[in-house]
Amino acid sequence: MPWSEAALVIAVCWAVSGLGYGVLAALDEPQLSVAPLIGLGLAQWFFARHRCWRAAVAASLAGPVVLFGLVDVLRPDLGRYVADALATGAAATVALTVFALVGRAGGRHHDAAG
Predict the structure, then answer these.
(1) CA distance 67 to 72
(2) Considering the entire predicted model, what is its pTM?
């Protein structure tokens, strides 16, 4: 996967996170989250464009760790909506970076083996 594609998908995730949590804050809906919507979008993107299972597993482990870790750290100082938006965007960034790195490493490994 090219880094330009990863950067584009990361930017879309940040936009959805910011806009989504902005709307949820305006509607005062603290029980709702945009993270599942982003996760479903990333899963659809994965099945449509890049089926590297090793990279997907690594990304799906890294993303939630960052999400839940940052939410706990950021919420006391920033409040629910801002903390959730930042944590969701950061988790998507980490997940896609891990996906790209593992996918590229796997591609090199398969090229060297062949």
Answers:
(1) 9
(2) 0.87
